[in-house]
Specification:
The structure is a homodimer of 113-residue chains.
Chain A: H1 10-19, H2 24-31, E1 36-37, H3 38-44, H4 50-62, E2 66-71, E3 77-82, H5 84-87, H6 90-102
């Protein structure tokens, strides 16, 4: 048994903290494709309540990952888009997507008859 | 505003579901370095309670990401290690770590005096 102590860097702990909130990954996975209105996000992450979507968007704004953009058309509309910090999460989202496709649930279980 | 509808693939939704549980990422980040006893995991993810660590390990076992290995020494000890499916998460963990280091909190905020 290897007894190496993995030192927990605060930035890494913070990153896992942000990404380990329910729905955050799926919200980011929609926004990586481009800006969205609130109702688009609701449609594209269907099981997520409006209340929790609001909370998650505010958390991501506070983390400077998502920004709120007021579109000065009539009627005024609000969209959400990724900041540069948010866009930099693309390799993380792509890696999760690749893993999901390459390793569908229980792909390395050997069944003995 | 781009109106592309991102179709939510069940495998991708499942992957985000697994990884979006509090502490799961940090537990995997320790196990990627090699097998660990329960007490090693407790030491290396210090804010995590024994109860929640047990729950997370069982969830990861059920997902075939972590396996429990009984070491037949005296006294018998139990270790936890990643399965092949778990080891395949390394690119995800590395991508999160890179992002955490490259984009420390609020790195793209411009401060106007």
């Amino acid at each position: 048994m290897q007894k190496v102590n993995v030192s927990l860097c605060p930035q890494v702990e913070n990153a896992f903290g942000i990404l380990s909130k329910k729905w955050t990954g799926l919200i980011l996975n929609v926004l990586i494709a481009g800006p969205r209105h609130f109702c688009d996000l609701q449609r594209e992450v269907p099981s997520l309540s409006a209340r929790l979507l609001t909370i998650r968007l505010r958390e991501l704004e506070a983390e400077n990952i998502v920004r709120r953009v007021v579109q000065t058309q009539s009627p005024v509309r609000v969209a959400y888009e990724l900041t540069e910090r948010g866009k930099a999460l693309e390799p993380v989202l792509k890696a999760i997507e690749s893993w999901a496709h390459d390793w569908a649930p229980n792909t390395d279980v050997t069944i003995h008859n």
